[in-house]
Design a protein that fits this description.
By secondary structure, this protein is an alpha/beta fold. It has helices spanning 30-37, 130-136, 149-163, 180-192, 201-210; strands at residues 2-7, 42-48, 102-106, 141-147, 167-176, 196-198. The protein has one domain (2-210): Isochorismatase-like (Rossmann fold, 3-Layer(aba) Sandwich). The relative contact order is 0.20. Keywords: Hydrolase, Metal-binding, Pyridine nucleotide biosynthesis.
Length: 211
Amino acid sequence: MIVSIDIDAQKTFTPLCPNELPIVGGDEIVGELNAQAALADWRVMTKDAHTLAAKWLCQNRADMGKPTGLINADVKWVAHAIVGSKGYELLDGLPDETAYDFCVWKGTSPELHPYGACFHDFQEKLSTGLLEWLRQRQTQIVIVGGLATDFCVKTTVLQLLRGGDWQVWVNLAACRGIAPESTQAALHEMTQHGAKLFPHAASIADAIQAA
């Protein structure tokens, strides 16, 4: 079985929401996400789902990246992906939430700001159910795309690699990173742990056909 995962493909991480966490090209990945999903048996969605009561929030962008002192939220971020806001929405052209086969909502608690889709907490004790769902479907390949390469995509890929004996394939055309340096470091770390990188969905289709 092949599973495709759309990681945090939300307007909050695009130029559509310039006051949140805009990523250059973040709004250009829909076609590739849909293309990789067309190769899969199942499609999964993850979303940041935050509250204005979050304890990791900062008012000034200059404070982003400073330590929070919290156990499950490492650094401060400006408000983004607030439930009910424009930034919380999936990118136009993606399916409605109810059209996905499995969904993960991340960071709903004011205490939590997880990056990965497999666990709610940094200690990786509180499962979101994604790993169990993948095992139940006897998943062989997980295709990943989304935002951002250097945070939520990277962490999710590493959790997936630790969590099962499936292959994890990253669709680079369906990903965008926050910064070039951290994005390159993330790609290196993912490959070092066993992920396979593909330039686009067409190359993934070729690999599936050749398998």
